[in-house]
Amino acid sequence: MEKTKKILISGASISGLTLAYWLIEYGFEVTVVEKNQGLRLGGQNIDVKGPAWEIVQRMGLDRKVVAATTTEVGIRFVNTRNKTVAEFPKDNALSMTQEIEILRGDLVELLYESVEDKVEFLFGNHITKVSETSSMIEVSFQHGEKAGYSLLLIAEGIGSHTRQLVFGKSINFKYLGLYSAYLTIKKVKSDSRWARWCNTERGIVFLIRPDNHGKTRACVFFRSPERGYEKLSIEQQKKFLIDKIKSVGWESDRIAKEIETAEDLYLERVSQVKAKSWYQGRVAITGDAAYCATPISGKGTDAAIAGAYILAGELAIAESYEQAFFNYEALMRPYINKIQKRPPGVPDLVYPTSKFGVAILNTLFSIVASPPAKFITSLFGKNKSKPRKEIDLKDYSKIIRN
Ligand SMILES: Cc1cc2nc3c(=O)[nH]c(=O)nc-3n(C[C@H](O)[C@H](O)[C@H](O)COP(=O)(O)OP(=O)(O)OC[C@H]3O[C@@H](n4cnc5c(N)ncnc54)[C@H](O)[C@@H]3O)c2cc1C
């Protein structure tokens, strides 16, 4: 494809910034529009592994990513009296803690730093209208300006508005019966380098994790029918969450108090995005906007980074954008179909709503973490199993050179 083409990316997070990096690398001219006034840096740890790790290495960011890890040593499942019922250190095959755990915000910042002086950024703005002519895509921005681009790539996350403008009803959501809320809280004595997971009886789960900035990251999961809580204003979300978790046990009141003053509260439904197609005309979608697998899958970041890498690479080597979009989808679909398969027991077993369900779950955790079971899983420990490639990543730079 012609390299002087102007490309507009909407969304400056993991997928949008990875896309920007590779498109610049291949000689495109890139503008990124981000609705927020600055980068959105909230959230807990995300793990960088599999395809994401391979790509981060190709971007030369691996050492910076390693230096920014949260230093989490493993996860403890605790009861509401804070007694550990099971613990899984980082090297246990069943541990949620992976080799490379980095705060989502730290990764976003690293990606931003890698492109900030090569890309035009439009913060605090967003697209309100999209129309396509035979030679370009025309967009109107909220601040009133209009501009034309060769292509529009949407990386706006699960709740993407521009995707709905372009793709409308062809986007489906599979709601998993859960909401998640993330926020940064003050570090207290009971916080250590272990993550702590506590199931309370009303289908409310707390997950507290260490960060590398002297703070603690909290997550609240709660079971609920789909109610649109993510669309409430931040103040309404705070009030709703405080009422929801107050006095449910464990450290609920500590977290409720922190929600009052939180500056980075992020509430979202846990929902998969199922799109019939990831492109239409001169527009393509990527990351959570196209194929959110949910935080439960543990693969959202892998998919966001891999999708961005493949989309940029195919645009660089294909004869036309139509061919590139087609190849991007053909290469990514099988991987996404695999990672969107839900792990067994989620959410019913892992997020129980009754006292009995919590007791069963804690017993199961303690059996799995018992010495005989630990021995068996150690045979399949993370370091011992030979990593299998989940998706083949072409070396686009090499293809271009040859
Ligand atoms: C604040 C926040 C906290 C998160 N915390 C966690 C976490 O702790 N654990 C976890 O597993 N996942 C978390 N996620 C989701 C995680 O980032 C994604 O699952 C994954 O990394 C894929 O990233 P993405 O770039 O596709 O989407 P996202 O990371 O969701 O980013 C989308 C970006 O697009 C911007 N945007 C949205 N609408 C518009 C618009 N109309 N115009 C322009 N820009 C727009 C958003 O402000 C955001 O910067 C969080 C997401 C956000 C936004």
Q: List all distinct small molecules, including ions and cofactors, that are bound in this structure.
A: flavin-adenine dinucleotide
The total count of strands amounts to 18
The total of helices stands at 13
CATH architecture field of the domain at 6-70 and 100-173 and 272-343 and 387-401 = 3-Layer(bba) Sandwich
Strands across the major sheet, in which order?
5-4-13-14-15-12-16
Low-pLDDT sequence parts: none
Rg, Cα atoms, Å: 21 Å
Q: What is the straight-line distance between the termini?
A: 15 Å
* Percent range for β-strand residues: 25-35%
- Classification by helices and strands: alpha/beta
Shape: globular
Main sheet attributes: strand count, strand direction, barrel closure = 7 strands, mixed
CATH superfamily placement of the domain at 6-70 and 100-173 and 272-343 and 387-401: FAD/NAD(P)-binding domain
Note the topology.
Blueprint: E1 6-10, H1 14-25, E2 29-34, E3 45-47, H2 50-58, H3 62-67, E4 74-78, E5 84-89, E6 101-103, H4 104-113, E7 120-123, E8 127-132, E9 137-141, E10 146-149, E11 151-154, H5 161-167, E12 171-186, E13 194-199, E14 204-210, E15 215-223, H6 234-245, H7 252-261, E16 266-275, E17 279-280, E18 283-285, H8 288-291, H9 300-317, H10 321-339, H11 355-368, H12 371-379, H13 396-401
Parallel strand pairs: 1-2, 1-11, 2-7, 4-13, 11-18
Antiparallel strand pairs: 3-6, 4-5, 8-9, 9-10, 12-15, 12-16, 13-14, 14-15, 17-18
Helix pairs in contact: 1-4, 1-9, 2-9, 6-7, 9-10
